[in-house]
Amino acid sequence: MPVIGKEWYTEMNKQPVLLYEDISHGCERFTVPVFSNPRFKLDTLVFDNFKYTSRIIDLSGNLASRSATPTFVCHCAGQCTEHCECSSGVYGASGTVEDMDQLMWDTVRECNENCECALWCGNRVAQKGAMYPVEIFARDPWCGWGVRASVDIPFGTFIGEYTGELIDDDEATERHDSTFLFETRVGSVTLTIDAKYSGNYTRFINHSCSPNVKVANVSWDYDEIQLIHMCFYTDKLIKKGEELTIDYGEAWWANKKFACMCGSPECRYQNGKVINE
Questions:
Q1: Which domains are present in the chain?
Q2: Where in the numbering of this chain does the Pre-SET domain appear (predicted)?
Q3: Residue 65 burial by CB count (10 A; 0-12/13-18/19+): exposed, middle or buried?
Q4: What pLDDT, on a 0 to 100 scale, did the predictor assign at position 10?
């Protein structure tokens, strides 16, 4: 008599496989490994055609054409105070966000390269890049690849900037089928970051209707025409091995023809429509 479920049991107990030791190729302070899983037949070619970058790629010259007029330059000695004209007052002494609501109110302004304060100034956070290691893993057949913490990450911690190719509205319209478009601004001009073929690990962060990461507008350019960086901060203490998630928002779901699979009891999206509460 055959053993019922033997093949299923064997398949479910296959261990994750290290696909890449460091997909960032040294671009980050830490390695960014990629773990596949024999249970899920996910597309691994995405990594072969992916250019990792920790900064925005400006092939169209949107940033280079700015006026280069400095603004918000401080003359603080060492650590900036709460009265510094460059500071938005969002960061605490340890460089973490203490009030998440304040983070979401307006653009967070950090000191810039022309400021006289020290590099260890508490108002220089996102511009320094990610500090806490993460890994990319095969989440499941529905959500594909995901990102999880490799260590415990405290509440209010900057974990990464959404990077990719900076494109204008016309180009973004042509690439409307890309699911990796993130709107931003340079001064008053709306632009788009496309991370389909170039970007960093934030490109693989999944949606959740109960996210543990918030996205904020941050600037640290010396130019009067500021580039708005899309930066990610933890909205709770994230434990080692826990998946990082953000809320993609209603605009992203508006034309989707599939239901949200986040698994949250507060899930709001089904077949591209917002569920009335």
A1: 17-252 (2.170.270.10)
A2: 72-129
A3: exposed
A4: 42
The percentage of residues in the chain with a pLDDT greater than 70, rounded to a whole number, is: 91
What token pair was written down for 101?
A: 């609501």
Task: Give residue 140's identity as a one-letter amino acid code.
Answer: D
| CA distance linking residue 140 with residue 222, whole number of Å | 43
Look up residue 62 and give its two tokens. 């949107």
What is the C-alpha separation between 29 and 149, in angstroms, rounded? 15
The residue ranges of DSSP E strands in the chain, in sequence order, are 17-20, 34-36, 51-52, 108-109, 134-140, 144-149, 158-161, 165-167, 181-186, 189-194, 198-199, 206-207, 213-219, 229-234, 245-246, 269-270, 273-274
pTM over 0.85: yes
3-state secondary structure of 170: helix
Percent over 90 (pLDDT), the chain = 53
For the record, the structure tokens of 88 come out as 């938005």
Contact 49, 24 (CB under 8 A): no
211, two tokens: 């996210």
Tokens of residue 185, six digits: 């601004």
pLDDT of residue 273: 57
pLDDT at 167 over 70: yes
Cα–Cα distance measured from residue 50 to residue 229, given in angstroms and rounded to the nearest whole number: 21
Q: What is the pLDDT of residues 67-84, one digit of tens each?
A: 777 777 899 988 887 788
* SS3 label, residue 252: helix
